[in-house]
Amino acid sequence: MAPERERGGRAVSERGSVGIAVAGAVLIGALTALQARINGSLGAEVGDGIVAAAISFSSGLVILIALSLIVPEGRRGFGRLVAGIRSRSVPPWMLLGGLAGAFTVASQGLTVATIGVALFTVGFVAGQTTGGLVLDRVGFGPAGVVPVTVRRVVGAVLAIAGVVVCLSGDALGGVPLWMLIVPAVAGAGVAWQQGTNGRLRVRVASPLTATLVNFIGGTVVLVIAALVHVGVVGAPRAIPTAPWLYVGGAVGVVYIFLSAVVVRRTGVLLLGLGSVVGLLSTSVLLDALWPAPAAPSTPVALLAAVVAIAGVVVAAVPWRRRRRT
User: Which of 7, 113, 118, 302 has an alpha carbon within 20 to 30 A of 179's alpha carbon?
Assistant: First the structure.
């Protein structure tokens, strides 16, 4: 009897920890949507999405450097990172997660002001969900090979169906096709980024250090891209003064840090599905408050969020078969 109670206690505890992890994934999605709106607005105000992305990532890097110097765990993690690079236990590809983050932030600055957060999410989630399935199947994430069960496939299909709902009506009228392709590529990149950052976090035993590495790489790429772009097209037309336009980097610090922690418990796909709920739900609210020219109507976006949430429930909830008596 005692062993059964102990196993039952462990099962309840495990379900509880997975539930908390899924809630964290939903929060990650909500923060991603918020960052998309902030960076999209900054890109529109500056008149240059690439410069806006460089500003956003640079501000996040400054925050992380300060935290890594102040927090003892950050200093220890950085020491383990340096030692791992020297001993080659941390391979070079683990340091490249920031490239996907840089592309995501740039795509936000280039598209969101036109198509809205919800429509941006259409392409982003399609890429993220598909990428999560593939990466879990090959065991890329820190959780190892995560079986692609029927529930996970059905959940992923429902998530994609939810975002496809956003395409109904006249929302796409006059929107360039690349504005949907770019977010899809960014979504697939983020699935890879989450798995990469999760594995780096395990190697250096510090989500803060894993996040710092992500921002160093992304900032270097975006600053170089911004300098080249300014050299070709000229300096931005204006520098906005509203403080809220510059907090996108801080928001990114929070959700990338959470991703490195949560992915070890959820796997890449479940993290992606949970973030879909946060993405779509927050997108509906943001587009309702600050509508963009090509954003879908609030009822359509709300329906899409409901369908996507159903997908997460199917994929995440450990349904039990009833025992026959």
Answer: 302
